[in-house]
Write a structure and sequence with these properties.
about 350 residues, mainly alpha, globular, auxin signaling pathway, transport, Auxin efflux carrier component
């Protein structure tokens, strides 16, 4: 059973992250040290240097031949289940929509695995739990972020088709009563011509991922992990030292940058109370519930079940907000989920950790 000493150990591991976040927030909102332009420069430093090295350093020390495929399968089942439910909701519910299905998937399935998850799970259950978080982080970065980008590109293509159709109709409605036969042929030909193929969509997705340093940090880290564990190579100390000197700043600078981001917003809750509550329910209830179903389906028990659920209850992925802003899809909802979710995650995760201690 989990005691107060265990909870204190978790709090000790988490509070430094919130100190870094508070320093970032105060440096802009209270002390006026950084301008918005300088905040953007710090954010670019984090995105292009600190976090990629942080991700790479964690990934290269995993053993791909000893990965817990049952936990990865549980995670996959939970996300596939989420996709199916949201697809059914978008198709058959009068209130469902494709755009909100994408946003709901981001809110319920994509978490801040490394920056918050790695130190948290290490404090809760030990190094083996941290290794599981790293494994799930790699899968999320390579598989599920690709899926999210593909869905966003598909939606963007749909908007493009509608725009072209509207233009071909003289700038009026997309389709008028859906026109003469000749005009209908022109409409359909314009729509088909503007609809990108699956290959072109995937090319766009992979190009965006290739421009994301954290993506190729994960890929390179996994590649080196396979090579080093297969042939028992050790990374040269000069290279490892170069990686470590940058990666050690990763978690602190990431949380500091989050504080800067929070301070630059006009208000923490940017999307209204109803949508905030909706996002928090998806992040801290629906996501863990789906993971619990997936974990039970593959037979996870004990600490493996607990770790899987806590990973699913981590704060919102920052990358999901970045993509939402880039594609113009409910960015204010994801912004609120990242900010508010990060603030409330410490007490919620500690409570979850304590409650799961009673589960056999």
């Amino acid at each position: 059973m989990i005691g107060w000493a265990d909870i204190y150990k978790v709090v000790v591991a988490m509070v430094p992250l919130y100190v870094a976040l508070g320093l970032g927030y105060g440096s802009v909102r209270w002390w006026r040290i950084f301008t918005p332009e300088q905040c953007e420069a710090i954010n670019r430093l984090v995105v292009y240097f600190s976090l990629p090295f942080f991700t790479f350093e964690f990934t290269v020390h995993t053993d791909p031949f000893a990965m817990n495929y049952r936990v990865i399968a549980a995670d996959a089942i939970s996300k596939v289940l989420t996709v199916l439910v949201l697809a059914a909701w978008a198709k058959w519910s009068s209130k469902g929509s494709y755009g909100w299905s994408i946003t709901s998937f981001s809110l319920s399935a994509l978490t801040n695995t490394l920056v918050v998850g790695a130190p948290l799970l290490n404090a809760m259950y030990g190094r083996w739990a941290q290794d599981l978080v790293v494994q799930l982080s790699v899968v999320q970065g390579i598989v599920w972020m690709t899926f999210l980008l593909f869905m966003l590109e598909l939606r963007k293509a749909g908007i493009l088709v509608t725009t072209v159709a509207a233009t071909s109709n003289g700038g009026g409605d997309v389709v008028s009563v859906e026109l003469q036969p000749e005009a209908k042929d022109v409409e359909e030909n314009a729509e088909v011509a503007s609809r990108p193929s699956f290959c072109s969509l995937m090319m766009t997705v992979w190009l965006k991922l290739a421009l994301n340093p954290n993506f190729y940090a994960s890929v390179l880290g996994v590649a080196w992990a396979f090579i080093s564990n297969r042939w028992h190579f050790e990374m040269p100390s000069i290279i490892e030292g170069s990686v470590l000197i940058m990666s050690r700043s990763g978690a602190g600078l990431a949380m500091f940058s989050m504080g800067l981001f929070m301070a630059l917003q006009e208000k923490i809750i940017a999307c209204g109370l109803n949508l905030t509550a909706f996002g928090m329910v998806l992040r801290f209830v629906a996501g863990p519930a789906a993971m619990a179903i997936g974990a039970i389906a593959v037979g996870l028990r004990g600490d493996f079940l607990r770790v899987a659920i806590i990973v699913a209850a981590l704060p919102q992925s920052i990358s999901s907000f970045i993509f939402a802003r880039e594609y113009g899809l409910h960015a204010e909802v994801l912004s609120t989920a990242v900010i508010f979710g990060t603030l409330v995650s410490l007490p919620l995760l500690v409570a979850c950790y304590f409650a799961l201690g009673f589960i056999n």
